[in-house]
């Protein structure tokens, strides 16, 4: 009897307890395991932290043959393999960063039937040498992890995953299980079609994470808003997401100067720096990781108490996945997203400029618009977010910012007209700050030099605060009446949306932005 088959034929429940030390399956895991045990193809949609791995690891052991797991990231594979080895499972990973002798050892173990579970990257799997070797080994299951990477509609499309469409041809009698945390209908259909599993059992778990308190605020005083959020969880771990590498570095430095244990993390770090950061993150010490989206897949610290976004994610899917890294232990955790009109306009601008094919841009655009709508919604955030994944929450969650502090709206038609006129009169090339300055009757050097203090719109918005006007700009951008152009963010009217407002043919209802609660002790320090 081969070593890899030592669990073959044992009851899954027993192996779960004996090998993994878990008392029982979570609901969907039991169904998924049962399907695969019966040799049926399966698609599992489960949020991050839901426990997807067990769904294929158990059948891999309990069925005869070796389990093959396709995974997109080397770091992710190495983590899984290390974890499994600690449990006494013979797991190995074949990928491009292996030393020659490591690869040779794996090949000999493969041939001798010693490997329980083999993790592999898609490009490695389909290289001819590897494929020839693998088709000769009986497989218990083929798991396609992060299966949404196969879909061009998905937010993390990886062209090399496309090649997996060849799997059924090479391994016709092996059950396939595809797993993902991206749940939308389109992605789901793409996965089923690409892996040619039209009759697959599709198991969808709820994406509701009741322990996450979602809150979304307009940017007012970024650093203070951030620190207020972090302060509630001083002794825990937090993740702060930024849109660029440079920004993570700046923010981490600024937090360290204020006495926070903060580290930057992004794709530009050396492998050694990355490893060191991950080690510290996993050690359990209080830590704030200021990261780009490079910090993500495979992060498994259960007690992350806060996730803060300083820049708006590109889609609800990305947003959900990132905030999902908070509270994996099930305890209450806070998430905060800060957003601004310029950010939205810039995101749209860069998308338009991008060299991606128009079909892809259309998808990305619809996701970006869904994200923008999510930030501006006046209803329950949790509900709006779940709605993006086709899940309807019967009741408002009761603990997001909009549930706790119902949003006031007001008739902002007059304010919108003032602002749009000011943009028009100043020539549609100045940024929000300048236009707001004109409305509020300021006499900055730029305003007087351009003669904008002589315009009829000068000073007509004196009675309102700068923050009020920023809110108006942002919401007019969100609804498409304004856009920005170029890197400097000059505001421009979108005529078809702006004209009816200017002419008084259309009413504009705006949300009254909450007065952002910041920690007053910090204001001295700025
Ligand atoms: P995902 O891949 O869906 O993000 P994982 O497979 O990494 O999730 O599992 C998330 C966490 O849940 C892990 O820490 C894992 O040990 C734990 N877990 C998974 N299944 C069970 C179970 N049946 N009982 C207890 N803990 C579990
Ligand atoms: Zn709510």
Automatic annotation (TrEMBL):
EC number: 5.6.2.4
GO CC annotation, single: bacterial nucleoid
Any single biological process term in GO: DNA replication
Enzyme class per UniProt: isomerase
Location of the Helicase ATP-binding domain: 33-201
Keywords annotated in UniProt: ATP-binding, DNA damage, DNA recombination, DNA repair, DNA-binding, Helicase, Hydrolase, Isomerase, Metal-binding, Nucleotide-binding, Zinc
MF-aspect GO terms: 3'-5' DNA helicase activity; ATP binding; DNA binding; four-way junction helicase activity; hydrolase activity; metal ion binding
Cofactor names: Mg(2+); Zn(2+)
Reactions mediated catalytically: Couples ATP hydrolysis with the unwinding of duplex DNA by translocating in the 3'-5' direction
Domain Rhodanese: 191-273
Domain Helicase C-terminal per the UniProt entry, residue ranges: 222-372
This protein's record includes keyword Mitochondrion: no
Metal-binding keyword on record: yes
Family membership: Belongs to the helicase family. RecQ subfamily.
Protein name: DNA helicase RecQ
